[in-house]
Specification:
Order of helices and strands: HEEEEEHHEHEHHEHEHHEHEHHHH
Strand content: 5-15%
Bound molecules: iron/sulfur cluster
Structural class: alpha/beta
Distance between the termini: 28 Å
Shape: globular
Low-confidence stretches: 1-9, 311-332
Radius of gyration: 19 Å
Oligomer: single chain
Helix content: 25-40%
Number of strands: 11
Number of helices: 14
Mean pLDDT: 86
Length: about 325
């Protein structure tokens, strides 16, 4: 336990850099900081070692109630999970250093953009870091690049993505958990409406950029009905997406600290069941994951969405997509 007269914890590494970052702007309850970054491109560990990761920001203003990435702020000694959506760190972009890192990648290497934050969150409108990074990617060849976002702002960069796709493999993964606007507003308070995300799917595919739609996470008795998933898949196909996936909710303790109070407020009848399911494990166990996988397979087949994302991206049959992403945090 920390008492008032205890010495403050010694900050090292990313926590020290975060503590000394300059405030760029304070907006409503959100503060933007500039974060000095030694290395932009991280690397997974264990079986994810072959995957490189890139996160232009730390923290995410969209504030999804189920967000598993809140854990990433704990590396900066920011333990209150709500600070993840209120203190946003924009990485200080150094084009020459970034290009030097890109040159060290090999032909065929895989880079995932947006594994622990949304690269097109509101901060991107101001700081354009994702855009600048993509401009650098346009000078590369032979990379396998995935971008995950919940924002229609991604369509702004359709032209540069087309240039990247001419010389690399590129796929954008738009997350759409539900088409119900009211439910989306509850679950993902500051993310763009599902209709705007679908419009972005259409713009990107018209520009020749391959798009997947992800209905992650699938939350029991909230967005897991066949009808709900089918509506998302049907709309994705109608707007040009060529793949669809959906995997069950994964709730680490840091995510539970936001998600369970949210349930108490908005879905009180579900609290007991969720507490029981997630009390001992961050994963849903039993027949549920297999049932959802079968449901999604059938929906995908009905809408001929048979293009599957790369085996580990973003759905791993063994770990589930969120665990794969979680396994990559240490590389940020
Ligand atoms: S968009 Fe992604 S990173 Fe941002 S709050 Fe939502 S789940 Fe977390």
């Amino acid at each position: 336990m920390l008492f008032d007269d205890d010495p403050p914890p010694k900050l090292i590494g990313i926590a020290r850099l975060a503590a000394s970052s300059d405030v760029l702007e304070a907006k409503r309850q959100v503060e933007y900081f500039e974060l000095e970054t030694r290395r932009f491109i991280g690397r997974g560990s264990g079986r994810m070692r072959s995957i490189y990761t890139l996160n232009p920001y730390r923290g995410c203003e969209f504030g999804c109630k189920y967000c598993y990435a809140r854990y990433a702020h704990e590396f900066m000694e920011l333990r209150d999970p709500l600070l993840f959506e209120r203190k946003i760190y924009a990485k200080q972009f150094r084009p020459a250093a970034f290009r030097a890192e890109l040159r060290r990648l090999k032909f065929g290497d895989t880079v995932w953009i947006g594994t622990a934050t949304d690269p097109y969150q509101p901060a991107e409108r101001r700081f354009n870091i994702t855009r600048q990074m993509l401009e650098a990617f346009a000078g590369e060849r032979g990379l396998d690049i995935g971008i995950t976002t919940k924002s229609d702002l991604v369509a702004r960069d359709a032209a540069v993505m087309t240039r990247i796709a001419n010389q690399n493999k590129l796929r954008v993964h738009l997350t759409i958990t539900t088409l119900d606007e009211r439910l989306a507003r509850l679950l993902e308070p500051l993310a763009p409406r599902p209709a705007l995300r679908l419009a972005a799917v259409a713009k990107l595919t018209e520009a020749g950029v391959p798009v997947s739609v992800l209905a992650h996470p699938v939350m029991p008795l909230i967005n897991d009905s066949e009808a709900s998933l089918e509506r998302v898949c049907e709309a994705a196909a109608r707007n040009g997406a060529t793949s669809f996936s959906a995997a069950p909710l994964f709730l680490q303790p840091c995510a539970q600290r936001v998600f369970l109070p949210f349930l108490e407020q908005r879905f009180p009848h579900l609290v007991r069941r969720y507490r029981e399911r997630f009390e001992k494990s961050a994963y849903l166990k039993g027949h549920y994951p297999a049932m959802i996988a079968e449901r999604v397979d059938q929906i995908r087949a009905r809408h001929k969405m048979m293009d599957r994302p790369a085996p580990e991206w973003p759905v791993s049959p063994v770990l589930g997509d969120q665990m794969v992403l979680f396994a990559l945090y240490s590389a940020k």
